[in-house]
Specification:
By secondary structure, this protein is mostly helical. The chain is built from 13 helices and no strands. Helix content is 78%, strand content 0%. Helix 4 (61-78) packs across helix 5.
């Protein structure tokens, strides 16, 4: 039965999320159940595209990404794909009216990773938008369920949330990005001379994004608020750890939030939501 095939494809996207990110898996599972499969599908799509450019070193990355891009648009056009990740993703794109321009921007940012090792301010902002902000907008399309007025109201804040997450990732992974891939995303930053002042300037920019993002979270539909808030708290915790880590150590150590802390944040979020419901 076709319904079994579709159920299996969404299950594949869920498995990908669980294997690659305990943090996002926790966040997704605290969303209203109706949002689980759509957000798993979005994560599976962006994760596999990112894997092509980041880890498939023994293969022709450009050719693979071009094929992935072609197959993505073909799946959306035809409403079916034998690639389970692309089938579940196209289903979400068509059901929730995700704009193709968001997908194009995302795939272009992946192409940038094939060639760029340093970014000027324009390229940096373009990359942040395509690699992270549009992912937040795709999820927002799902959460708003066709309410275009609400989507328009929350667009800017959703972009800020995606930007905050990505910039924190850049800071956390600055050592591995440089050593393993030869990349430095932050404009004007010399990895070999990463100063306290440079780190502080980046952190101030990230804090602005977090502030704007929180405003947007408060306006989300009830079924989406808890999960997004949990992801926000996790990244904020990671950001605080990075702020309390020296620039020298950031260059040699990948900062992490332990699983125990993640589950503590989950419990705290659930308790806070329970009190709000009672009041």
């Amino acid at each position: 039965m076709f319904s079994l095939y579709e159920k299996t494809t969404f299950g594949c996207s869920k498995l990908i999320t669980e294997q690659y990110s305990t943090s996002f898996t926790l966040g997704i599972k605290t969303l209203d159940r109706k949002f689980h499969d759509p957000v798993f599908a979005i994560y599976g799509f962006v994760r596999f595209a990112d894997e092509i450019v980041d880890t498939f070193h023994d293969f022709d990355k450009k050719k693979l990404l071009e094929r992935f891009k072609h197959d993505t648009y073909q799946a959306i056009e035809e409403g079916i794909s034998l690639n389970p990740v692309l089938h579940s993703f196209q289903k979400v794109v068509r059901q929730y009216g995700i704009d193709l321009s968001l997908i194009e921007s995302f795939l272009y940012s992946m192409e940038m990773d094939l060639n760029n090792t340093a970014y000027d301010p324009k390229e940096y902002n373009e990359y942040i938008f395509g690699s992270a902000e549009v992912v937040g907008l795709m999820c927002l399309k799902v959460f708003c369920e066709g309410d275009e007025k609400l989507y328009d109201q929350l667009q800017a804040d959703a972009r800020s949330l995606g930007a905050a997450f990505q910039k924190v990732n850049f800071l956390r992974d600055i050592q591995s990005d440089f050593v393993e891939r030869g990349r430095v995303y932050f404009p004007g930053i010399n990895f070999n001379d990463f100063s306290i002042d440079a780190k502080k300037a980046i952190e101030e920019d990230i804090q602005k994004d977090f502030n704007l993002a929180y405003r947007g979270i408060t306006g989300l539909p009830a079924g989406a608020k808890r999960g997004v808030h949990l992801a926000y708290l996790y990244y904020l915790k990671l950001f605080k750890k990075i702020q309390n880590t020296s620039a020298n150590k950031i260059q040699s150590t990948r900062i992490r939030v332990s699983d125990s802390v993640k589950f503590t944040l989950l419990a705290r979020t659930l308790v806070m939501d329970s009190f709000r419901a009672i009041s």
